[in-house]
Amino acid sequence: MLNSNTFWFWISRLGESPIVLPIAFALVLVFMAFEAHRVVRFWALALGLAIGVTSASKIAFLGWGLGIASLDFTGFSGHAMLSAAIYPVLGHAFARRRQASTGWWGAAMGLALAALIAVSRVTTHAHSVSETVLGFFLGCLVSACAMGFRAPAHLRIPRWAWLTAAAWLAAMPFVSLSFNTHQTVIKVALALSQRQHPYQRSDLHRLVPASVQPLHGQEVVFLGH
Questions:
Q1: DSSP secondary structure letters along 173-194
Q2: Distance between CA atoms of 13 and 23, rounded to whole angstroms?
Q3: Where are the alpha helices (DSSP H) in 34-128?
Q4: Is 219 helix (H, G, I), strand (E, B) or coil?
Q5: Any idea what DSSP says for residue 217?
Q6: 76-108 burial code (b ≥16 CB/10 A, e <16)
Q7: How far is it, in rounded angstroms, from Cα 39 to Cα 170?
Q8: pLDDT tens for the 225 residues of the chain, in order
Q9: Dihedral angle sign, alpha carbons of residues 106, 107, 113, 115
Q10: Are 136 and 114 in contact (CB under 8 A)?
């Protein structure tokens, strides 16, 4: 019988970059095929920037220990960000299959799935609440960049594409993926900081700040080597 821990684990997997980024790439191809070039430009740019910000926040902590102790913040949740950036756009695009006015219902369903994935990151103790919430809202800004533009009226994704996407999402959580993005981020952080071991969450709270400057009422921690 499926217990709650197993349920949240499989939900969390739906936010992994090797699963959601191919969906984003496929959507870009679809939008380009229907000449929705403005949507592609702004969404791809926003997604790239969000990925950069998320990665930079993780590298800053893993390599230099930069975080906000009072918020238990060590970097944006990549799962929450990517889910909120991609699934609402996916839902919006596929819900337009019958008529354009149903697109927003699809976007709401995609957002609900993204919210569920965000919750899973907290319940599985992968991220703190602040990391998950901030990552989720960062992703929402990205998806808004795509849905803020009017898609072509003739944009109707065929049934086979919908079935392919559904099969992908149903199967991939059960597939063992060899590529681990978190390990890649750790390697980059260690290479840039010239450290042998990454900072851990416990370091954010264990060590006394060496140099603290208030930032909007929050404590920014600079941990020494």
A1: GGSPPS--HHHHHHHHHHHHHT
A2: 14
A3: 37-64, 78-95, 103-123
A4: strand
A5: T
A6: bbbbbbbbbbbbbbbbbbbbbbeebeebeebbe
A7: 27
A8: 456 788 999 999 999 999 999 999 999 998 888 878 888 899 999 999 999 999 999 999 999 999 999 999 999 999 999 999 999 999 988 887 666 677 889 999 999 999 999 999 999 999 999 999 999 999 999 999 988 766 666 667 777 888 899 999 999 988 877 678 899 999 999 999 999 999 999 999 885 454 444 444 444 444 444
A9: negative
A10: yes
Task: Tell which residue, 83, 104, 86, has the closest CA to residue 43.
Answer: 86
Q: For residues 85 and 88, what is the distance between their CA atoms, to the nearest angstrom?
A: 7
**Residue 27 amino acid letter:** L
Cβ-Cβ contacts under 8 Å for 57 (sequence gap 6 or more): 74, 75, 76
> Residue 91 in contact with residue 132, Cβ under 8 Å?
no
For residues 27 and 88, the answer to whether their CB atoms sit within 8 Å is: no
Say how far apart CA 94 and CA 191 lie, in whole Å: 42
Q: How far apart are CA 171 and CA 139, in angstroms?
A: 24
Give the separation between CA 76 and CA 210, rounded to whole angstroms.
24
Phi and psi dihedrals of 219, rounded to 5?
-95, 115
Residue length of the chain:
225
Amino acid at 21: L
Distances (CA, A) of 61 to 10, 129, 165, 200: 27, 17, 35, 8
